[in-house]
Write a structure and sequence with these properties.
By secondary structure, the protein is of the alpha+beta class. It has three domains: 137 residues, Rossmann fold (3-Layer(aba) Sandwich), CATH 3.40.50.2300; 107 residues, PAS domain (Beta-Lactamase); 224 residues, Phosphatase 2c, domain 1 (4-Layer Sandwich). Helices cover 39% and strands 25% of the residues. The protein is built from 15 helices and 20 strands. The chain is rod-shaped, with a radius of gyration of 50 Å. The N and C termini lie far apart (114 Å).
């Protein structure tokens, strides 16, 4: 229909101009548009040019009669129904039969009864309105189907393709006119192509797997011959008493490629992780061998190192010289983790060798600084506290460079002496530029010397409050020497309350005899 008010475009054909004029006046009075033709050949031309909704066609006309014109128009008009009503003075039954066989939808004899014609026009208007509604619904469905990203292929019981959407053309590479009417197996590679008709027959016969109503992953074939993975879901419907199958097909080539890429990346990551773990395990064994020397088992020494990561950049060392003097080292390399741990390693071997030889503390400091200055990159250094105690004379030496101050506690846990950091960390200045002279210390019976890294003092609780020197002093106060180290550990644990410290923590308590 041309307009929403059901006005029709009517082609009136008659070789009698008076009859044409009467029809024109009558049709226009009913509100229709009228196109005129005086013979069958002209009627065909007007039909092609104007696409009328209805044709009123005389039979007996020159050049081409109405029967021939009707047959040609019906042959031309395949997409939509255009009703033809014959208006003729021929009123025998054979004329009526011949007109209907030629493609007419109705037959009125002349002279025309305009009351009947008007009623027939109203009936045709209703039929055309239904046709238009169906056409509009089909257009909507097709528009939706053509804008779906997945291919939609409809086949009949023989596997013949009935319809496809636009995505099917894109996915399979075939234009619609080369797919419709052909067997759907052309979209499959062998051996599925040869077996597909058997699958359908088996299913229709009630046997075989129920492939309807489920999604499967299969392999499809493009027009250019390459195969690609798809998922397909098949549903069944009955249309015009025929079983019809609708397949919704999604090309998953990109998804498969992405999945394979993810698997490749996962394998690479796993290999990298395994290699890293092996290297870290080896590094851990080497560190363990370097760090845990026999001197750390000295009964006068209590220590704890808590790494912020897998490896600690804080190290502790202890050794006794041939004369029985006790040497201790607490070092804190820049950063934390494996790189910090490696940075601190160079000092260990040198410390143990020189302390066993009873080298003066100032010389040990100088050699450690020189070793780090020569081996460490710019920006890497090691804060350290070194101690040497002569238990016979109750005198000792302490050198503090960049670490928190050392503290001497008496038997009641009171701080009797502090040893602040008065030097730069090792590895920053050349050995001739640093002051290697240690500070002297002496103690009373049952005193203890406490050394720690800044990670201990900077450890924060849930409220952001640092443990600090005050927290350390309070933990040590009013405790007996044998319980003091454990009391400090417990107080720190309560302060952290399960939280990880932001930096490596090291604590060393030395019993002074």
């Amino acid at each position: 229909m041309n307009t929403p008010n059901n006005k029709m475009k009517v082609l009136a054909v008659d070789d009698n101009r008076t009859n044409l004029h009467i029809l024109q006046v009558f049709l226009k009075k009913l509100g229709h548009d009228v196109i005129l033709a005086e013979n069958g050949a002209e009627a065909i031309r007007q039909f092609t040019a104007e696409a009328p909704d209805l044709i009123l066609l005389d039979i007996m006309m020159p050049i081409m009669d109405g029967f021939e014109a009707a047959r040609r128009i019906k042959a031309m008009n395949q997409d939509r129904w255009t009703p033809i009503i014959f208006l003729s003075a021929l009123n025998r039954d054979e004329n009526l039969v011949e007109g209907l066989d030629a493609g007419a939808d109705d037959y009125l004899t002349k002279p025309i009864n305009f009351v009947v014609l008007e009623a027939k026009l109203r009936s045709i208007q209703r039929s055309l309105a239904l046709q238009q509604a169906s056409t509009d619904a089909l257009d909507r469905i097709k528009a939706i189907s053509d804008n779906v990203l997945d291919a939609i292929v409809t086949i009949d019981e023989q596997g013949t393709i009935i319809s496809i959407n636009r995505a099917s053309e894109r996915i399979f590479g075939w234009p619609a006119d080369e797919l419709i009417g052909r067997n759907v197996s052309m979209l499959m590679p062998e051996p599925m192509r040869s077996q597909h008709d058997t699958f359908i027959a088996r299913y229709l016969g009630g046997g075989g797997a129920n492939i309807v109503g489920s999604n499967r992953e299969i392999v499809a074939q493009h027009r250019n011959g390459h195969s690609f993975p798809v998922t397909i879901g098949i549903t069944e419907a009955t249309l015009d008493n025929q079983r019809t199958f609708i397949g919704v097909i999604r090309d998953i080539s990109q998804q498969k490629a992405a999945d394979e890429k993810l698997r490749d990346n996962a394998r690479l990551l796993q290999n990298y992780y395994d290699q890293t773990q092996n290297e870290q395990n080896l590094a851990a064994r080497l560190m363990e061998k370097q760090l845990h020397r026999a001197g750390l088992q000295d009964p006068r020494l209590h220590y704890r190192v808590i790494p912020a990561e897998s490896f600690s950049g804080d190290i502790v060392a202890a050794s006794r010289s041939a004369s029985g003097r006790f040497h201790a080292l607490l070092a804190d390399a820049t950063g934390h983790g494996l790189t910090a741990a490696i940075s601190a390693l160079p000092v260990l071997a040198l410390f143990y060798r020189m302390s066993r030889l009873d080298a003066p503390l100032a010389e040990i400091v100088r050699e450690l600084n020189q070793q780090l200055k020569e081996s460490m990159p710019v920006g890497r250094f090691v804060a350290a506290t070194l101690v040497c105690l002569d238990e016979t004379s109750r005198k000792g030496e302490i050198w503090v460079g960049g670490t928190p101050e050392g503290m001497l506690f008496d038997r009641w846990g009171r701080i009797t002496q502090r040893f602040p950091s008065q030097h730069l960390p090792l590895g920053i200045l050349a050995s001739e530029e640093i002051n290697c002279q240690p500070a002297a210390l002496s103690w009373e019976a049952e005193s203890q010397l406490l050394l720690c890294s800044d990670g201990l003092l900077e450890a924060t609780d849930a409220g952001g409050r640092q443990f600090g020197v005050d927290g350390l002093a309070q933990a040590a106060a009013n405790t007996s020497p044998e319980k003091r180290f454990q009391q400090i550990e417990n107080t720190l644990a309560r302060h952290l309350n399960g939280r990880l410290a932001g930096d490596d923590i090291s604590l060393m308590v030395i019993d002074c005899p």
